[in-house]
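Q: What would this chain look like folded?
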Amino acid sequence: METSEQVIGSKYRAPSYGKEIILTLIEDVDADLGKGVCRLDAESRAELGVEVGGLVEVIGPRTLRFKVERLEEVGDKKKSITLSKDLRESIPFSVGVQVFVRKPIR
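A: My prediction, written as structure tokens:
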């Protein structure tokens, strides 16, 4: 069987991640210590396409996955994220920095 198409290069394609957004890290909720969760506001969850209980990746010197919880909207806390203090210090990030957040491939 002959074919007129030529295959050039490899079949590998780089992973196609979803949208990345930039969020400001705010003070964490004390009850989250040791749970491995992050809290996102409704607008950010909708923009990333994740629901409460889903996963997101926070990108820094290390990329870590967190389970998403609901962030209660308080005043100017839109486009914000909280990380439990133990994990935030292991990345390391401090309160007030902007971080990249994306939905993982799987």
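Helices lie at 42-48, 85-90.
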